[in-house]
Amino acid sequence: MPEKVQNKISVLAHAELMTLLPPREQESHKGDFGHVLLVGGHRGFCGAIRLAGEAALRVGSGLVSIATKKEHAASLTLSRPELMCHGVADQRELKRIATACDVIGIGPGLGQTRWSSSLYEAALETGLAAVVDADGLNLLSRSPRKNKNWVLTPHVGEAARLLRCSAADIQLDRQAAVKELQNEYGGVVVLKGSGSLVYGGGDDIYMCKAGNPGMASGGMGDVLTGVISGLMAQGLTILDAAKMAVMVHAMAADRAAQKGQRGLLASDLMQPIRELVNDY
Ligand SMILES: NC(=O)C1=CN([C@@H]2O[C@H](COP(=O)(O)OP(=O)(O)OC[C@H]3O[C@@H](n4cnc5c(N)ncnc54)[C@H](O)[C@@H]3O)[C@@H](O)[C@H]2O)[C@@H](O)CC1
Ligand SMILES: Nc1ncnc2c1ncn2[C@@H]1O[C@H](COP(=O)(O)OP(=O)(O)O)[C@@H](O)[C@H]1O
């Protein structure tokens, strides 16, 4: 039986990561802080893309656009007017919006229909630095490919689909799983769950010791996608953005859970996320 390889585990620390976000210059304008485009929100799932969008704004992205189903654009705009929401029917419409953007996040509530896969393909064809989550990962598992300029954020179920094994197999050796995912798909991989792991190749696997089981509720992962995208838009490398996002997201959940883990909502993380990226 092969010997289990010992990896170097670095525990993520908020204070250290905050050096990546220097104070804003007095003369700054929104164009200095990047433009995120988030793609998703199929019927029944438009909350997912709404959560990702607000999270990208709350970490300080200058502009955030949403590409979603036509019937969702107006209600999303009403619920968060700072988001620029576009009803998008096809690849041409998506690519036109993407020309103004710096980073693309694909997957929250995207679904797995023909509409979903066509927008997923178009999003990757833009060549923008990307975050791929949720149904984006399910589409990736159907047609595996490698890219050095993306962050993949699987939960254990998605990781199992990507590696063609069971969720139990992933949990048996999470460090081996995150390395295998990165090796097969490239870029940076965040293996979510208690003790989330971040790996971008090389010797170090980063571990997040913050977070709590209150986070086991729908929409939490969608918020993480927005946080990573928003930090990438502000110029962080994909590895730094993933490390910082995982830490801020989990610490925000710990702050929000001070009144109890049960009943914690993904939306409850927005204000603590804002505090943490401002070092409060
Ligand atoms: N408000 C909304 O609109 C929401 C939309 N969502 C969207 O719903 C779609 C489906 O996503 P789901 O993640 O629910 O569906 P999946 O089928 O990908 O994942 C759910 C299953 O994954 C497995 N799993 C997940 N974490 C695990 C763990 N830590 N250990 C073991 N097994 C684990 C479990 O079997 C679980 O039932 C996505 O597009 C997603 O973005 C969800 O994010 C929930 C909220
Ligand atoms: N028990 C836990 N301890 C720490 N973090 C957790 C726990 N359960 C869930 N999380 C975190 O919450 C998020 C859940 O993401 P995900 O499963 O994709 O949710 P959704 O698809 O509903 O948005 C991940 O960031 C994960 O690390």
UniProtKB/TrEMBL annotation:
One of its GO terms (molecular function) is kinase activity. CDD domains: YXKO-related. Residues 13-280 form the YjeF C-terminal domain. It catalyses: (6S)-NADPHX + ADP = AMP + phosphate + NADPH + H(+); (6S)-NADHX + ADP = AMP + phosphate + NADH + H(+). It comes from the Bacteria. Its EC number is 4.2.1.136. GO terms for biological process: metabolite repair; nicotinamide nucleotide metabolic process. (6S)-NADPHX binds at A48, G109, H155, D222. PROSITE patterns: YJEF_C_2, YJEF_C_3. Its cofactor is Mg(2+). InterPro entries: Carbohydrate_kinase_pred_CS, CARKD, Ribokinase-like. The keyword Kinase applies. Keywords: ATP-binding, Kinase, Lyase, NAD, NADP, Nucleotide-binding, Transferase. AMP binds at K192, G193, S194, G195, S196, G221. Pfam families: Carb_kinase (PF01256). The keyword Ubl conjugation does not apply. Belongs to the NnrD/CARKD family. Catalyzes the dehydration of the S-form of NAD(P)HX at the expense of ADP, which is converted to AMP. Together with NAD(P)HX epimerase, which catalyzes the epimerization of the S- and R-forms, the enzyme allows the repair of both epimers of NAD(P)HX, a damaged form of NAD(P)H that is a result of enzymatic or heat-dependent hydration. NCBIfam families: yjeF_cterm (TIGR00196). Homotetramer. This is ADP-dependent (S)-NAD(P)H-hydrate dehydratase. It comes from Cycloclasticus pugetii.
